[in-house]
Amino acid sequence: MAKEKQSSNARFTKYSIDNHKRNVHGVGFICEYCPRTFKGRFQLDNHMEGHIESSMPSSKVTCKVCGLVVRNKYTLVTHMQRMHMEQTPVSCKSCGKECKNKRNLYAHMRDVCTDRSFPCTICKKTFKKKKKLTEHMTTHTNSPLYQCQLCPKTFRYDTALYTHRRVRHYEQWLEIQQKRKQGVQFRLNRLTD
User: Fold this and answer.
1) pLDDT recorded at residue 3
2) CA 27: distance to chain centroid?
3) Which residue in 11, 46, 106, 146 is deepest, having the highest Cβ count within 10 Å?
4) Each residue of 146-158: b (16+ CB within 10 Å) or e?
């Protein structure tokens, strides 16, 4: 059955407009706390737990195989599937690279074997990831993107910040790495424009 074309003055309810945007315009689900979008409600809900984690009672669980502490039972299921279940390797149809599982293949296809590119408007250099373009733009603007949480030093690239913390603030870096293994998540200090 063919879909009927809606007239330009179609009326929507609050709920039908959300469904319309998702289905027709691909908006998906938008986080209330940050600009990230998700294709499904489950992914959005799981993401939002990170924002409101401090106000809720702890639901962290520990992996019985490796001892990693994750934030909830849903994340544990994903961890078990990715890290501890035997999976059939899959190959990229574009370049032939063999990946451990479908998830790694999708990441490879998204980041390596893709036609998607983000061009620099100044020097026309192209990047496969928007984050890399953003970091590249600092070479033209001479403005840093990140600041060390432990000192006032600033950086253009997240890799330079990571190296700085590991070398200059080694004790604190070790402590952060230990907390990460226990399931604590950290965000980079991104400077505002």
Assistant:
1) 42
2) 17
3) 146
4) bbbeeeeebbbbe
d(CA 10, CA 58): 46
Which DSSP string do the residues of 35-95 spell out, in sequence order? S-EESSHHHHHHHHHHHHGGGS----EE-TTT--EESSHHHHHHHIIIIIS----EE-TTT
* Whether the predicted model's global pTM rises above the 0.70 cut: no
- Is-contact 172 150, C-beta < 8 A? yes
pLDDT tens digit string along 64-104? 988 888 878 888 888 888 788 888 889 988 888 998 888 88
Phi, psi of 151 (to 5 degrees): -155, 170
Q: Average pLDDT of the chain?
A: 77
Q: Residue 128's closest CA among 139, 138, 120, 116?
A: 116
- Does residue 8 register a pLDDT over 50? no
